[in-house]
Fold each of these.
Amino acid sequence: MKKMLLALMVTGLLALSGCVPSQTQDEKITVITSLFPQYDFVRQIAQDKVNVRLLLPAGTEPHSFEPTPLDIVSIGNADIFIFTNELMEPWIVRVIENVKSDNLLIVDSSVGIELIDHFHEEDHEDEDDHEDEDEDHDELDPHIWLDPLNAKVMAQNILEALISVDPDNAVFYQNNANKLFEQLDELKAEYDEIFSDPTHKTIIYGGHFAFGYLAHRYGLEILSPYTGFSPNAEPTPQAIIELIERMKEADIKTIYYQELIDPKTARVIAEQTGAKMVLLHGAHNVTTQELQAGATYISIMRENAQKLLQGFKNE
Ligand SMILES: [Zn+2]
């Protein structure tokens, strides 16, 4: 208490004498990110040079998230706001309209990454087929970060944003980013190794369609009773029954489930098939416990790799 009083007095005296140091000179820059991967990359690259905050409260499922008016005020007061892409955070349009700040840099972390529509990939070759053009946009996959090479592009975008706002620390940021890039290369090598085995191609996933970019890179078949990207759209009983039959036929013993929502669909399938339920973490966001235990994007993705490998070994 004494210290606080003293601090108040000093501030008061400085204010009186007109010697208040310019606040922007000494204060760290503030970075706010929407999802966990960006938050983690800022932590790795900027470390103690910035104040970084994850907009989503720990444990919050991101697809149904909407920023509060207070969140929009916080974003307006930040120096950098990093979002995933307009499909993952459709509310970004409203944020850009409502934020009143000339100093804020808004960063789309997906710049340089081609968004993919996994459901109509072949259709694109057929130029005459314009029937479901509107639908196509809705089905572009927002989960870009689940491919380690996309994650590298995102980290590069974040690095450039940090350097442009805080050029004094450019060398520090670049050195840390280089270490992160190396780790992401190692992560990719780990996935390359697992999926180089041609029998490692089918994953049964009892969650929404989140791993499409990984599937695209390695030619995987991800079977899920969910048909889209929204965890809120419940699968049909028919889709669940078909998946159960497929698993029984192929004697598949692992059903993966997603983080942060009750895995009731995966549980039903596990009960019907005797398959083991294993978390395949989409890394959208983490729980408070995971955060405290030091989870990083890399640690989550490496754990996923080991679980996939284990699942393939059991088949
Ligand atoms: Zn998702």
Amino acid sequence: MDKHLKLNSYCVKGGKRNESTKAHQLPLYLSSSFVMEDSQEAVDIFTGQKKGHVYSRYGNPTIDTVANKIAYLEGYDLKGETYGFLTSSGMSAITTLMMSTLQSGDAVLTQGNLYGGSTELLKKILSRMGVDTIFTNLQDLDAVEGIIKENGNIRLLYFETPANPTMACIDIEAINIVASRYDVPTAIDNTFCTPYLQRPLSMGTDYVIHSTTKYLNGHGNSIAGAIITANYEASRKIWETLKLNGSTCNPFDAWLLSNGMKTLAIRIDKHSSNAQSIAEYLSQHDKVTHVNYNGLPDHQDHEIAKKQMSQFGGMLSFTVVGGQAEALATIDRLQYCTHAPTLGDVDTLVLHPATSSHLNVDHSIREKNGITDGMVRVSVGIEDVDDLIADFEQALGQL
Ligand SMILES: Cc1ncc(COP(=O)(O)O)c(C=O)c1O
């Protein structure tokens, strides 16, 4: 065909693709649509009789490969299939999950110490659409059961464990047993753990969501989310919702996520061992009044974490003597750790919850939940732990 084309047409459609070899690495399909061999194939694919890609908002080879990989990891202990979808962010995973499971008149039962964006979504957006939210302490299973019994309109129990920034844990198996007694579907945000540390589907959870922006990508260069379920019917509803709300992941972010996930296991091993060492170091420091790390035997939820996580992960928080001024001074004096409002990257990140992630939470509620003004949150990286401890040592030494 090329020979007969005018130069300007050749610019548009000319040139042979060299696809005679198989790429070793996952190819990046930056194509919004996919070519149909003939009209029959188009009919077969659109009517669902044949599998195939048609339009990247509906599905894309790069995106689907990564979604299936996360679904496989989350379903690692299950016999049957698991179904995964990549979304444009962690928030879009949560929004899509809510849109596909809830309708006006329904209610969500959840905890007060969710990721702030999730709380805002429920309070500001879902409420306008007629979906109520009931906040309670999900560690209190009798209270959970009482609330579900009293509110027949609860159609989703949504939770996080460990929760930011105190690392409070919820017993996944136990809460699922309570919810399933009343046919209430459950969903967990598994961002902090990833399926390498915690696989909630095997503990009876119906849906898992992720901000893959964090540990699954691990390199701080992609924003995306994921939704996984082992229920086929539920997966079809999620796919339909995602297709129509248009918050599908883009192929480049999926591709970056794919690269990051190759090193997930060794990264999380190192995040966990570094965090354990730093938590132990901080808990002995005379300028530190409290350390929240699930791997410390005196953490209030150490036993629950031990039961459901294979290691304790890379997230911790600690409170310094004094208050906000001392916490901010510690952060400013750190020379090697980075002050940034994210987590799960390969390098160590710190932030001050009271003036950032939890700024909009009332002071009294913060204090009640153990989020003190003197608290510093640390997403422990994979650097040499001696360098990290030296940095904390010099920063705390100046208090
Ligand atoms: C636990 C958790 N869930 C969800 C989100 C939202 O993810 P994203 O920023 O990818 O939308 C975040 C973001 O910080 C988070 O920490």
